[in-house]
Amino acid sequence: MRKNEKSGQTDYLIGAFRLLLIMTFTFIIAVTSVFAVPGAGLGPDSEQQRITGKVTDGKTGEPLGGVVVQVKGTMTGEITLGDGTYSIPVTADAQALLFSFIGYQPQEIAIAGRSVIDVVMAEEVTALEEVIVIGYGTQKKSLVTGAIASVSSDDIKNSSVTRAEQVLQGKAAGVQVISTSGAPGAEMKVRIRGYSSNGAADPLYIVDGIKSTNISFLNPEDISNIEVLKDAASSAIYGAEGGNGVILVTTKTGKAGVGEISYDFQYSDQVVGKLPEMLNSEEYATYFNEAGLFTIDPATITHDTDWLNSIFEHGNSARHNLSFTGGTDKSKFLLSVSALSQDGIVVMDKDSYKRYTFRLNAETQIKSWLKVGTVNNYSYTQRKTVREDNESSGTISAGLLMDPLTPVTYAADEVLPPHVQTAINGGKKLVKNADGLYYGISPYITKNPSNPFVGLEINNTATRSWVLQGNIFADIQPIKQITFTSRLGYEIGNTLTDGWNPVYFYNTYQAFNDNSSIVAQESNANFWQWENFVSYTNKFGLHNVTALAGMSAESRGYQYINASGGTMLAESDEFAQLSLVSSQALSGVAGQKTLDKKASYFARASYDYANKYMFQATLRRDGAGTSLLPPDNRWGFFPSFSAGWLFTNESFMPKSFLSYGKLRASWGQNGSLSNLSNYMYNSAVNLQYLLYELGDNVLYTAAARNQLDNQDLTWETSIQTDIGLDLRMLKDKLTLTMDYFYKKTTDLITPNTPPLEAGNTAAMVNGGDILNTGFEFMAEYKNNKGEFNYSISGNFTTLHNEVTYLNPSIQRILGGQSSGAATFFTAFEKGLPVWYFRGYKTDGINMTTGQANFVDQNDDGLINENDRVFIGSSIPDFTYGATVNLSFKGFDFNASLQGQSGGQNMILWMRNDLPGSNFPKFLYEGRWTPGSTDATRPKAGFNPNTLLSDQMLFDANFIRIKQIQLGYNLPQSLLQVIKLKFVRVYVSLEDYFTFTNYPGMDPEAGSTTNSQLGLDKGMYPITKKAIFGISVTL
Amino acid sequence: MKTKYFLFFVFSIVLLSACEEFLDTKQPGVFTVDEFYKTDQQAFQAILGCYDYIQNVWENVEYVPQQTYTMMSDEVYAGGSLRGDALRLEEVNEFRHSSNNSLMSDLFSQSYNGIYRSNTILERVTPDTDIKKLVIAEAKVMRAFWYFQLVFNWGDVPLVTKVLAPEEYAQPRTPASQVWAQIEKDLNEAIPDLPLKSAQSKRDKARWSKGAAQSLLGKVYLFQEKYTEAANEFEKVIISNEYNLYPDFSRILRKDTELGVESVFEVMQPLTSYSATNVPPTINNVAGERSRWQRFMGPKGGGWFVGNTTTLPIGNSGFGFWNAKLEIYQLYVDAGDPVRRAGTILSEAEVIAKGGKLRNPLYKTPELPQGTLAWSSDPCLRLKYTNWNDETQGPTPNNNISTNYRYMRFADVLLMAAEANNRKPSPDDTKALQYINRVRARVSLPALTVTGNELFTAIKLERRLELMFEGHRYLDLIRWGDAADVLKDCGKKIPKGDGTFLLIPDAGFKERNWLWPIPEVEMNVNPFMTQNPGF
Question: What was the ipTM of the complex prediction?
C-alpha cells in the first residue's frame, strides 16, 4: 500500500518532467512562430542610447517602484526601482515608451528624441469603466442592463480549487454551487437561479466562445474571469440553450509589455470532517437484541470496529503551475503548463485525481484590418474513484453500515470464525490485506454491505481523459465601425476507463466473483462549432449604437467501444490486457455512435443616450437536429429586451452620498434541450438486445417498436423577468446590487405516463411549468486607513421553487429510489417544489407499540402509499456567502464563508432490507423501550415505513468557513536584490469549519442524480484542507 | 487593400447562411416503422418480439405472473429476509394490496405492451407468404393470450385491437363479454393456420402449435363455463395424439423434459444467459434474457438452507420468497400420494436425511437451541421451480436458471378436459374419469370411479396435487368461486421462523378480491376509467 503511494509520486514527477520538456520545446516553437512576423533584430548591435527618468504617483507625488516600462513594439522592458527611477535601452527607430502598473492607467509617451522622460501615473478610474464579457462581445459594466455576476482571477488565485466551477462557490448571488461529493475530481452541480427543470438543469458553459459540456479540463489558474449570465436578457443571445443560465469563461492572455514568468506551487493536507455517529459494539448488541433479530451475548464481543473512521486517512494534493506571458501591442501570448496530483482521504490509493494541462493562447494583429488568434488547451486527467452515492455497495455506505462486531482484519493469532473457515474450506478466495491477514466478514449481514476494505482492495479501475479544446479565430475590420469575426471552435476528447476484477468472495449474496475479468471502455467525443458574426459600433453625438448579427453551426459526435474478457491469465495490472485471456468464451464487445447537430442565427442591438438611458434587444433563432426534435418543430425563436436608467447621470439629481445609481429591467425567453437526446420523440423498430431463444437453443434477433410517437415535441422555454438596482455610494466605497427575478419554465420536457393501454413506453412530452423566484442582494464595502486596506462583501439569495403546472395526463412523476426499499422517495408534482420528499408524516411515538404514529392522511384506517405526502424539500430557502479581505503592508488576510438554510436532506443509507446493518446513533438514543414515556424514536428494529418517513428527514442548514488565508508579499527592496518581480507565500485553511446540526455525512452531500436531490446515500465527505503555497513572478 | 473588402464580402455571403439539410441526421441502429414489416425475415423478427415479451415478463425477479398467482393462493408465504423485504409480495399474499401494487399494475401494463406488439404486426404484415400467414396467426394467439390475463383478473378492460394514435390513448372499459368474444375470435381465426406440434421443427417447438392454441381456446371456454365448447376443443387436442404424459413426475418441470412430450406451451428461458454479477460480458447486455426468479424463489440461503451436491442438489443462495406451507406436505400424506409429494415438497426430516438443513445456527435462541428457520417459513422445502444446481448456466451456480416455465402441460389439459366433460350440460363422466385416471395412473394412484359432483370435487383435489406451485391454484379458486371460502384466512398468521407467528388481523380474501384493482397510474391518467369495487 505504502509502496504504491511512493511509486505514484514518482510517476507524477516523471510526468511533470516530461511535460516540462514538451513545454520547453513548444515554447520555443510558439515564440518563434508568433514573433516571426514582426521580425527579429533586437540584438545589442542596434542599441544606440538609454532613456532614464522617474515615475511618480499623480495623487501623492510619491515615487512609484515596480512600474513596467517598455519600448513600444518590442520585448525590451524594465521595472522602476523603489525610488521610481528607471533606465531603458532604446534603438534609434523606437517611437514611444509604455508605462503600466496595476491599479494605474497605462500610458504611452512618445520619445520624440528625449533621453530623460519623467512620468506621472494616474490611478485607474472607477471599476465602472471596467469592461465585462457578454455573449459575442464585451460591454462597459456601467451600461449593462442585464443581471451578470463576475468573478475575476483575483478570486481564483491562491485558493485550493481544483475545478473551475468551485471558484463560484459562495461568491455570487443566485449561483448555487453544490459540492455533492468531496472525492478528488468530483463534479459540482451548478444551479443558476433555482431548479428550472426536473432533469438536467446545468448551465451552458462557454469557454472562450466555445460551447463546452463541462469545464473539468480547465486549469483554474488559466482563467482570467468568469461571467455568469443570470437573467434572460443576458443569456438570450445563447437562446435555445441559455435556459439554465450561461457561464462564460475567459482564459488569460498575454499583456503588451515585459515578458513574465510565473510559478505557483501549492500543497494541501486533507482530512475528513465531522462524521455521523453510528452504534458501537455494545450498543449494536443491545439494539438488535431488543429488536429480536439476534441474540448477542455482550460477553462474547471481541471487536469494536469504528468502520467509518477506519476508512479515512490523511489525503494530500500538490499543484504546480508555470506560465509565460508576453507580447507587444500587436501580438500577445500565454503559455502555461500545470500539474495537479491529489490523493483522497479514503485509505489506499483508490481515490485520486491527476491533471496535467498545457495551454497556448496567442493572437496577433497581422494586418491593420486583420487579427488572427487561437486558444488551445490540452489536458490529461486520470481519476480513480471509490464507490459512493450508492446505498447498496458503496465504500462510504459500507463504512456506515458494517456491524462493529466484525473486525477490519482478523489478527494473525485469531481463530477464524466458523463462517469464514467454512468459506475457506469451500475453496472460496477470501481477500487478504498487504500483511496477509484476512479481511473481516460479517456473520450478521447476509446481504450487502460488505467490508469496505475488500471493495477497495478489489477495485482496479481508473478513468483517463485526454481533451483538446480550443478555437482559431479571425477578426476582420474593413472599416473602423465594423468587425467581422469567424471562429472555429473544437473539442476533441478521449476517455478510457479500464480495469480488472479479481476472483474474490465476500458473501454469498452479491459480493463475490468467480471469474477474473478485464474491462475497458473507450469513448470519443468530437465537437466542432463554427460561428460567424458581424458587429457594428458607432456614435452619433450622444447616441451610442452597437449592433451584432451572426450565425452558428455545431456538430457533436460521440462514439464508444466497450470490451471485456476473462478469465485473466494472472491477476495483476500487467496482465490486465484484453489479449491476455484464457479463452474468448467470456469476451464481449459493444459500441455505439451518436451525432447531434444544431444551427442558430442571432442578433443584438444596443443603444444608449448620453450614458443615461440604455436599451438592448436580442433575438435568436435556433434549429435543433433531427436527433433532438422532429423536423416540423425544430426551430425555436427566443427574444429578449432590457433597459437601464443611470439616474445619477441626470442633471436634476443632486450630488449626494450616492455616486452611481442604475435601475435595470429585463425580460426574455430562453430554451433548453438538455433533457433531450437520441430521437426521444420517434417511434422506430428496434432490434437491439431483443433476443428470443427458440427450441434449438439458438438466440434469434427479435424486433419491436421502441416507444410511442410524439411528433409534437418542442422546445422547453423559460421566460424570465428581472428588475435590478446597482448603487455606489460613499465615494464608491460601498457597492450594492439588488435583483428580483421571476423565472418560469414552460413546456418542460419530461417523461410521460400515458394510459397503460397505449401499449408502449411513452415518448418525452412537453409536460409542465416550474416557477423560480427570488431576491438577490450583494454588497461590498472597501476602504483603507493608510496602508491598512480592508473590504467586506456579502451576498444573499432567496429562492422559491414550485411546479406550477403539470400536463393533465400526468399525476406526478416519481423520482429518487432506493434499490432496497423499491419505493420512491422524491416526486415531481404540481404545487410543490421540484423533487420534494414524499413520504409518511409521523406524529410522535406511540408509547404502547413503540412505533411511530404514521399519519393516516385519508383516514381509511390503513397506512399505505396513499398516505404519503410532501414532507420536505432539499431546496434551500436562502443561500449566502461573505468575504473579508484585509491587507497591511506586505501582509494580506482573507476569509470567506458560505451557507444555506431552509433545505432538508433525507438519510437513505439506511435500508430496511439489509438486516444486521448498523444504525445511526440518533435512532438509538431516543428509542422507545417498554415503559418509555418520552421516546422520540421508534423501538429497535426496522419498520419499513420509518425509512420513508420524516423520521429520516433532517435540516441541512449549514455555515461553512470556506477559506481563512494569511499571505505575505515580499517587499520591493528585497525583490530587487533577488531579481524577482513578485513573491507571495501563504497559508490557508479551507472548508475547515462547518457549523451544522445535520447528523448525516455532510449537509451538502445529496445524491448527484437530478431526481434524487438531497437523498443522502453515503457520499464522499467534503474534506478539511490545510494549505501552503507560494507564487513567484519573474 | 481591396482584399479585406473582398474577404468580408465572401464571408458575409457564405458564412452567414446555413442550410436546413445540415440538421437532418438519420436515426442510427433502427428501422423506421414504414420500412420494416415487409420481408419474411422481418415478419419473423417481429413475431419473435411478441414471444420475447412473454419471456420478458416471465424472466423477472418479482413480476412473474405465476408468482403473483401463487402468492395469492393457499400454497406459500411471501418470505424474504424479514418483514418488509418483499413488501409487494406480502401485500398480495395477505390480500392487503391497493391499486398501486406493482405486481398487479405491471401485469396490466405488460399485457397491453404485448397486445401492442401483436397489433403492430396485424396492422403492418400482409399475409402474402406462408411465413407471414403463420406470423399473423401467432400474433392473434398472443393477443388472445394477453387479453385472457386482463379479462380474467380485471373484468371489463379497454379492448384495443389497433395501434392507438396519441389522442386515442385513453380508452373506456369494454364489457368483459366483448373481450372474451375477441379472444375466441382471434384463436378461432389463428388455429387453421398453425402447424401441428409434430410438424414443427425442433426450433419451432417453442412457438404456438395448433394443439397449444386449441388448448388455450379450451381453457378460455372453460373459464367462461362454456363446458361443451371447452370439452370439444380439449378433445381435439387429446385425440390428436400429439401429446402424452412424461412417465417420471419428479422431472416434468426440469430442464431435460423441456419442449418434450408433455409440453403444450412453454415460456423459453434461454440457455445462453448471463447475469450482471458473475460474467464479464455485461456489456453484451443480454440482461433481459436471464431468468432470475427461480433463484429468488429458491430456499433462503445465507446460513439457512444448505443442500447436498448429490442427494439434494439445490443451490444455497436462494432468496426465499416462496416458502411452502407445511400443510401442503400433509395434504399429500392425507391423499396417499407419495410420488407427487416426493416431487413437490420435502419435510424438514427428509431434508436432513438428504444431508441438507433449513436452520441457521447463528440465529439460535434459548427456546430453539438448534437454530431458527428463515423468516416467514415452515419446516419444509419446495421442490418445483427451484434453483437446481445442474440447471444453472455460467460459472457460478444458482444465478441463471434456464429452465422454461410450463405455461400449459398435457396433464393440465387432461384435467381441464375431465372437468369440462363432468360439468357440461350433458355430462360425460366416463370420459372425465378416463382423463383424470390417466393423470393418476402416471403417479401410480388407483383409478377413481366416483361421478357427478363427487367427481368434480375429486378433480379439484387432483388439480391441486398435480399442479401445486405451478401458478394455477389461484385462478382455479377464483373461477370455481371457492376463493372466498378457501382464502379467507390467508396471510393472517405469518411464521417468524422461530415457532412464533406474526399476526396480521386485516389479512385474508375479501369481497373486493374477486377482481384486481385497476392500477393507480391508469386511474390517474385515464378519465374514462372506473375502479373495481372496493379499491
Answer: 0.90
